[in-house]
Amino acid sequence: MSRAAQSMLLVLIGAAVLWITVGSGEYVNYVRPGFRYLLAPAAIVLLVLGAAGVRREWRGTRDDDHPAEHGHDHSRGPRVAWLLCLPVLALFLIAPPALGSFTAARGTGRTAPPPAAPTEGFRPLPRTGAPVAMSMGEFIGRGYLAQTGDPASLQGVPVRLTGFVAPGVKGEGGWRIVRLKIACCAGDAVPFPVTVRGLPRPPSDTWVQVVGVWTPPATGRSRTVVQAVRGRSLQKIEKPRTPYE
Amino acid sequence: MSDHAGLREAEDDLLPPAEWGREPASPGSRAAWMFGVLAVVLVGGRIWLAPHVSARALDAWSTIFVAVCVQALPFLVFGVALSAAITVFVPASVWRRVLPRRTGAAVPVAGMMGAVLPGCECASVPVAGGLMARGVAPAAALTFLLAAPAINPVVLVATAVAFPGSPEMVAGRFAASLIVAVLAGWTWLLVGKGEWIKAPSRPRADPAAGRLEAFGQAMRHDVMHAGGFLVVGAAAAATINVAIPADRVDAVAGIPVASVLLLALLAVLMSICSEADAFVAASLSQFSTTARLAFLVVGPMVDLKLIALQAGFFGRRFAVRFVPLTFVLAVSVSALVGGVLS
């Protein structure tokens, strides 16, 4: 791989990363939103590095008699570096979407452990009868607490959940609304599923908001059961700006 | 050995072919072999793979592949920048002045010094070669080589980011990697023979082109080397994530010894840069802490690209002894440390 090709590849990578970070905002499909503060400077460093290399090639000030250091010549890149084109091509040509029901279905065997409650405990829910919007993680955490402790803390309160549609599991009835939780990047996504009963199932991967009331799991079931709601209303929505929790 | 042959093909402008002492296969027979392998892969893929590949599986694959690349990129870039700065602006003679005269004592000091070279394993091999060429005892230089990619601040920060809320993973990685590096150095001091290492003949020459130019050159070189292998690792991680049925991996993940060995082997095969491997380890969430620790300890010390680099710099006679020694030490020490942690 020649030095000109290396420099231009660096410019390409830097431009692609900068584009998905500050241009299109697609980076939230792959990493947590906070990562933009790392991604943008890294992309700029790559752009500058590549541009400096291209400028030097342009001016023709190549030092070809540059001594070969420790066994191999630094001026020629390894062939394996061509592979760096692959993620750039994928970003521009495929623009991989956020993970959806395929990944959620793969995790059905193992349910994520219920998220721990904040140290001061969940705030008490308002009892006005209006639906309370909450994240899937919070709902599952509250559901787990209600299941193991005081069911009255959640029973009868309508909640509004946002997620995508995934098929249900046999024997459970209904279908599932799922939001994926990532710790770092999409590679470590774990599903937060909630079973919805009493509403018609939209097509898989449709983003929806469901208003429903928590139904306590049947007694005698294991503690890691998937929490369920009795649905009251369903609204199709656009994909949220941050697809993961 | 087919792994070595494959590597050599991919890297033949990185490694001097003469080092391998291998008779070149005639172009005709090589093409026939390639064709045979390709035919087997295609037929096998049609029978076993094609029924399971759907558009949604491909989508998930490409998302995870891009996600691992994007996630690792900032750490790679900043790590390489720091490594290039130290390589260019700190002369190697400083290292020799800092090390104790007695080799036995120099080994642990060299291991601790690994904590200040924020590079990945591609960077540490040339630096260790430079140290040897400037008179540092091989055992100490090798300890540095093993420790530097695993316990430097960039890698530890990346590990802490990848495992939020479990600082024991960072501590375990630091402790286990340092212990393995020091033990390997002492073992080499006791039983190693000088003639096994082909000392690098050319010391690092200061380029006349100016420091800033040398800095850019070193950075470009490291990004190209490490980035290419990172893409390989991301593709392997995405494939494992999408293709291997979760219950089958879970079945292995439940067996203590098998899971440790499986992840250690995966670390060797996937050859992920140490600045990025913590994120892959975090995605293997069905495995035990011990198994993931083994992945993090083995990866920066033994993997396919390192074997190739070490054989290139120090000769094959060195690599066939040093690589198994490091692998066995890394697996057993991380099993012990993982047992203490969990």
Automatic annotation (TrEMBL), chain A:
Pfam families, per database record: DUF1980 (PF09323)
InterPro entries: DUF1980 (IPR015402), DUF1980_N (IPR048493), UPF0703_membrane_permease (IPR052955)
Keyword annotations from UniProtKB, A to Z: Membrane, Transmembrane, Transmembrane helix
Residue spans crossing the bilayer: 35-54, 80-99
Residues in DUF1980 domain copies: 10-101
Chain spans, region Disordered: 106-125
UniProt keyword Membrane present: yes
Organism superkingdom: Bacteria
PANTHER family (alphabetical): UPF0703 PROTEIN YCGQ (PTHR40047)
Protein name as it appears in the record: TIGR03943 family protein
Species the sequence originates in: Actinomadura darangshiensis
